[in-house]
TrEMBL record:
Entries under InterPro entries matching the protein: MetI-like (IPR000515), MetI-like_sf (IPR035906)
One Pfam family of this chain: BPD_transp_1
Family classification: Belongs to the binding-protein-dependent transport system permease family.
Transmembrane segments: 12-34, 69-91, 103-127, 133-153, 185-210, 230-253
Main location group: membrane
Membrane topology of the entry: Multi-pass membrane protein
Protein name, entry field: Spermidine/putrescine transport system permease protein
UniProt subcellular location: Cell inner membrane; Cell membrane
Domain ABC transmembrane type-1 as annotated: residue spans: 65-253
Organism: Ancylobacter vacuolatus
Length: 268
């Protein structure tokens, strides 16, 4: 066997090992969710969907899911408005402090979520807003806004600048260029960014643990509180439903909006 074949075999073996390592926990969760026994165990001893029924009818999960929808819709929409404005500002203009602004916009991707959550906990305490919807929405908005900004910025970068110049030469005002030319072309990026933000907000746990209370806890926090008291596969069933739903949403969104192009994963 030649050195080139050995190198190729080693590379693909490493790829398979990494993919297996990444997907194995998901497979374990999916399999334990149908375990008929009342104890989390792997491998499952049979197949039963009783834990899915319990997950869907458990009052704390129902309340937490409603809270999550409220927080997700508000945080994602605010992140879309603010993130799109910042993306347009950074892309369109060169000004002093632009690099600092970009660093601040991308910083939630680098700062650990528990640090941000603890910071918002202290901030909420200072303004008497701890564990209320306002502080939770603000925390989630900050966490997901970089993804919206990234998606909108990439969409702006793919627009042919000659279109705006041609419209301006034909007498279109800057407002009409923005609303009639640029905005329709950037809408797929905005929609994709909002969807990614919504998925991340709905499944956010670390920061939510600091800023939610018993009345405002989101679904991941409710799952954490449940598993502290019970050891049955109900949480696995909830996790399985989240995994399947998120995967379907992202697949449909990729087919509809081209998320690979929006996020600059595929430039063709």
């Amino acid at each position: 066997m030649t050195f080139a074949r050995l190198r190729s075999l080693g590379f693909w073996s490493l790829v398979v090992a990494i993919l297996t390592y990444m997907t194995l926990p998901t497979l374990v969760v999916l399999m334990t969710s149908v375990n008929p026994t009342e104890i989390l165990a792997f491998p499952p001893e049979g197949v039963s969907f009783q834990w899915y029924e319990k997950a869907l009818t458990y009052p704390d999960f129902q309340r937490a899911f409603k809270n999550g929808l409220i927080v997700t819709s508000l945080a994602s929409t605010l992140a879309l408005i603010v993130g799109s404005a910042f993306a347009w500002l950074v892309y369109r203009y060169s000004f002093r402090g632009r690099g600092v602004l970009e660093a601040v916009l991308w910083s939630p991707l680098i700062i650990p979520h528990f640090t941000l959550g603890f910071g918002f906990l202290l901030l909420g305490g200072a303004f008497k807003l701890q564990q209320g919807y306002g502080m939770i929405v603000l925390a989630h908005m900050v966490l997901v806004m970089p993804f919206v900004t990234r998606a909108v910025y990439v969409s702006l970068a793919t627009i042919d600048p000659n279109l705006a110049r041609a419209a301006a030469n034909l007498g279109a005002s800057p407002f009409h260029v923005l609303t009639r030319i640029e905005l329709p072309l950037v809408l797929p990026g905005m929609a994709g960014g909002w969807l990614i933000a919504a998925v991340l907000s709905l499944t956010e746990f670390t920061a939510s643990l600091y800023v939610t209370g018993s009345r405002t806890q989101t679904l991941p926090v409710a799952m954490y509180n449940y598993i502290r008291e019970y050891a049955d596969p109900t949480v696995s069933a909830v996790s399985a439903m989240l995994i399947i739903t998120t995967t379907l949403i992202m697949f449909i969104a990729d087919r509809a909006f081209g998320l690979r192009r929006v996020l600059a994963i595929d430039t063709h």
